[in-house]
Amino acid sequence: MDWKSEFDRRVSVFPGVKVLSDEPMKRHTSFRTGGPAARMAFPKDAGEFLLALSCAPEGGPEPFVMGSGTNVLAPDGGLDRLVINTREMRKLEPGPDPYTICAAAGCSLRQAAEFACTRGLTGLEFAHGIPGTVGGGVCMNAGAYDGEMSQALSGALVLAETDISYLSVDALELSYRHSIVMEQPRTYVLQALFRLRPGTPADIRAKMETLLQRRKASQPLEYPSAGSTFKRPAGHYAGTLIEQCGLKGLRVGGAEVSEKHAGFVINRDGATSADILAVIREVQRRVFDQTGVTLEPEVRILE
Ligand SMILES: Cc1cc2nc3c(=O)[nH]c(=O)nc-3n(C[C@H](O)[C@H](O)[C@H](O)COP(=O)(O)OP(=O)(O)OC[C@H]3O[C@@H](n4cnc5c(N)ncnc54)[C@H](O)[C@@H]3O)c2cc1C
After folding, report:
1. Based on the domain organization, do 11 and 82 belong to the same domain?
2. Which residues are catalytic?
3. Is pLDDT of 1 > 80?
4. Are residues 74 and 97 in the same domain?
5. Which domain holds residue 113?
6. Which of 131, 147, 159, 239 shows its CA 20 to 30 Å from the CA of 6?
7. Distance between terminal CA atoms of the chain?
8. Whose CA is nearest to atom 2 of ligand 1?
């Protein structure tokens, strides 16, 4: 029996867990590309997450856990694996003391920032305009405008293989677009605890608005993308290097280096993932040839 039939047999015992077959990844990624995921489960809470995961047969392909798909490039040929999509795990509640909030993995960073604002808590304004989830944000140590998850987190509830434990922010080993979660196999964020500071809701809202306007002015938000395609290389800005190499507007098929912000590869017009990958590789090649700097993708490229 192949892994899908065995998964279907096991998960049928839990009819509450929503599972779709051959679900196009392009419906769930901000690039709007990617072929079908063999199975995609949508748990509503940590319990259903564990159930879905436990139905993946031993020896089968490693499940892939995703949030909003805003930093993922999925192959056009699809994924022969179980994808667990956390977007329905949205519980957001006050934490154990007045300065903390607790967010399930699938809460959007925007919802978490709004919740903090209504509770008069400052420290998450930077995350308001990042279109990912809390789980994706922890995994990537998402950040913007001098803020990053490592500054706002107290810790996270993490499932590693079969152990669930609370990892403090230090144990998560967060650094620039990096965490221990992305290093270890079968390690997933279920929930995050943010530790914030008292603030005034009007000031918090004003800061979120200002940052949103800065984003709108500088980023090509009218096109599908995954935000900054490359990590910031030491001592440089990826976008500036790409622009200096004359690569704005470089196009393969429907994918293009944005004219508005050279750090973004956009789906300009019906791009495939292969088009986007070709632009990424060409940019890396030409920037290296012209400057000697290696650009590392920030986008998680799936095979
Ligand atoms: C227009 C635009 C602007 C952006 N601006 C920023 C920005 O300013 N700063 C920034 O840092 N990023 C930015 N991004 C990128 C992206 O939004 C962040 O990296 C975000 O944190 C990804 O969250 P996600 O839920 O979409 O994760 P996904 O794209 O779904 O997944 C990304 C990675 O996280 C892993 N992951 C997701 N959820 C979990 C989980 N629960 N447990 C374990 N692993 C998990 C996935 O396996 C994958 O490896 C931007 C993207 C876009 C499209």
Report:
1. yes
2. 177, 228, 298
3. no
4. no
5. 92-217
6. 159
7. 23
8. 227
Q: How many residues does the chain have?
A: 303
Whether 228 is covered by a domain: the verdict is no
User: How does the average pLDDT of the chain come out, rounded?
Assistant: 97
Cβ contacts of residue 240 below 8 Å, gap of 6+?
262
Contacts of 190 (CB under 8 A, 6+ apart): 46, 49, 89, 104, 105, 135, 156, 157, 158, 159, 164
End-of-domain residue from the set 49, 72, 88: 88
**Ligand 1 pocket, Cβ-based, cut-off 6 angstroms:** 30, 64-72, 86, 105, 130-133, 135-137, 139-140, 142-144, 181-182, 188-189, 221, 225-227, 300
- Protein residue whose Cα sits closest to atom 36 of ligand 1: 136
pLDDT in tens, 12-54: 999 899 999 999 999 999 999 999 999 999 999 999 999 999 9
Place of tokens 């993946």: 56
**Is 66 within a domain?**
yes
- Distance between Cα 6 and ligand 1 center (Å): 30
Same domain, 72 and 102: no
Residue-wise pLDDT for 53-97, tens only, equals: 999 999 999 999 999 999 999 999 999 999 999 999 999 999 999
**Are residues 152 and 37 part of one domain?**
no
By the 8 A CB rule, do 271 and 255 touch?
A: yes
Give the closest residue to 229 by CA, choosing from 34, 73, 35. 73
Residue 208 and residue 109 share a domain = yes
Overall number of domains in the chain = 3
Tell me how far CA of residue 269 lies from CA of 84, 109, 164, 252, 253, in angstroms.
28, 28, 43, 10, 8
Segment 109-156, tens digit of pLDDT: 999 999 999 999 999 999 999 999 999 999 999 999 999 999 999 999
Q: pLDDT value at position 126?
A: 98
